[in-house]
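[User] I wish I could look at a protein chain and see how it folds. I have put the entry right below:
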Amino acid sequence: MNYLSACLEVALKDGKYVVGYKQSLKALRGGKAKLVVLASNIPSDMKSEMEKYAAETKTRVMRFCGNNFELGNAIGKYFNVGTLVITDTKVSEQIIHLLAADNREK
């Protein structure tokens, strides 16, 4: 497991999030998304559409280095998760902060 999956596991216990492509797009379009996490193996058309809406709403996008099965396991789900949107500002800032601190240590 990588550091992002550990951050997701801890941060999502109390946070609000949405999984799945359609629900993630709905959250992005509605302005509720604070952070978008994409699995490495989602189809390129889905990826580009998510990135397009994220750019329009100025939402940060993070790429999960594992596949959709590993992303599902990282958040405690036992099914494939290609897209994950965090709707809680505090949780999204915590994940970004933890990852930034990890990158500074390297």
Observations:
- Helices lie at 3-11, 21-29, 44-57, 68-74, 89-105.
- The two ends are 17 Å apart (CA to CA).
- The longest strand covers residues 35-38.
